[in-house]
Amino acid sequence: MLAWKLGPALACGNMIVLKLAEQTSLSTLYCAALIKEFGDKLECGSERFDNKDYFIKATIFSDVKDDMQITREEIFGPVMSVLKYASYEEVIKRANDTTFGLGAGVITRDIRCGLTLAHQIRPGSVWINTYKAICNQALFGGFKQSGQERELGRYDLEAYYQVKTIVVKLV
Questions:
Q1: Pick from 94, 100, 93, 103: which is nearest to 67 by CA?
Q2: What is the C-alpha to C-alpha distance for residues 97 and 119, in angstroms, rounded to an integer?
Q3: Per-residue confidence at 64, pLDDT binned at 50, 70, 90?
């Protein structure tokens, strides 16, 4: 991961997009303090990328519990929480037991299993063996408190349509 190119979101070719700490709804720096308070494990990150800026490094937390604030908040930053599970059914239940539903990533060797899971969980987008691969032709948006509207794709353009009905009686 450290060999990946880091940089601002609008720069071309970046593998990890940096996010201003002040732009995150629940700052990664705050999450690190929260995790340490609960005794869970901070694997890497949570510090500023460069002492001169407000960018934060990609952050991974392990041994995170379902009832912790970090799993109940929608964090718009480079943060990953690793949660253990015992069964496929438990994954579905836990993934759907949230007030948010913007996106989900599934890493699997079994694509059929990944596709089945994608149909059973409730985010607006599901990426299988990739993450945040977004193109202008595919719609993007969330479920639940992550929003009901869609961006990109045909549905986004429909907001600009002005529909008119014309009825003609043919004699």
A1: 94
A2: 15
A3: confident
Strands 100-101 and 103-106: unpaired
What are the b/e assignments for 94-123, b being 16+ CB within 10 Å?
ebeebebbbbbebeeeeeeebeebeeebbb
Token pair belonging to 26: 């629940």
Strand partners, 17: 7
What does the DSSP 8-state code read for residue 114?
A: H
CB 2 within 8 A of CB 57: no
Select, from the ranges 16-20, 71-75, 83-87, the one with the highest average predicted confidence (pLDDT): 83-87
**Beta strand 125-128 with 41-44: parallel, antiparallel or unpaired?**
unpaired
Distance CA 59, CA 78 (A): 6
Q: Is the pTM of this model over 0.85?
A: no
Domains and CATH numbers, the chain: 6-160 (3.40.309.10)
Q: Are 96 and 118 in contact (CB under 8 A)?
A: no
